[in-house]
Design goal:
Elements lengths: L8 E6 L2 E6 L18 H12 E2 L5 E4 L9 E7 L3 H4 L5 E6 L4 E15 H8 L13 H16 L1 H6 L2 E9 L9
Parallel strand pairs: 4-6
Antiparallel strand pairs: 1-2, 2-3, 5-8, 6-7, 7-8
Helix pairs in contact: 3-4
């Protein structure tokens, strides 16, 4: 089972190298669980190394059912600005179903934008995976995404955060590679 808590994980890039670091065991939070070269017998040998740094790590973003709107380019909203430090355009990410605690797909990050939650809702709400098929106006989409954020995050987190991060991605097994 994959632990979806990504709070301790940071993306780093330097001198042409990209990797993830954490104070915790990265393997427990990785979307490649079960399909990683570092797992199994080698994990024990490399555990202290993996705990601090891994080039193969795949972060996960958790989604509660209904799992809809994951075709083509879509976005997800996260409260606060921490996800800007966790992913970058080109990063591979696992999409985690919270009901089964398993990765149901992988995606490639195409953009990460952080700013005022009201502005982010207005500018990007209509392309959110929950609402993009409904062809909502920007105003209605903004209202609906803020309502969803409040419900999913809870009143305390929603009210205490003025920043939201919008993560755009494309599902890797998507056959429709046209730009939206």
């Amino acid at each position: 089972m994959i632990n979806p808590d990504q709070r301790y994980i940071e993306f780093r890039a330097n001198e042409g190298s990209q990797f993830y670091i954490s104070k915790k065991v990265l393997c427990d939070h990785c979307g490649r669980s079960g399909a990683c070269n570092m797992e199994g017998s080698s994990r024990g040998m490399w555990k202290s190394y993996v705990t601090k740094k891994c080039h193969e790590f795949m972060p996960v973003i958790a989604f509660k059912p209904p799992l809809i709107g994951f075709e083509g380019v879509f976005n997800t909203f996260r409260m606060g600005g921490a996800w800007v430090k966790r992913v970058a355009p080109g990063s591979q990410i696992g999409l985690l179903d919270t009901s089964t605690q398993s990765v149901f797909a992988t995606a490639t990050i195409t953009d990460v934008i952080s700013g005022d939650k009201n502005e982010m809702a207005y500018l990007h709400g209509c392309r959110n995976h929950l609402f993009k098929s409904q062809q909502l106006s920007d105003e209605v989409a903004a209202r609906e995404i803020k309502k969803a954020l409040r419900t999913l995050s809870g009143n305390l987190i929603y009210n205490n955060n003025t920043i939201a991060t919008v993560i755009y991605m494309r599902r890797n097994d998507d056959k429709n590679h046209q730009k939206e």
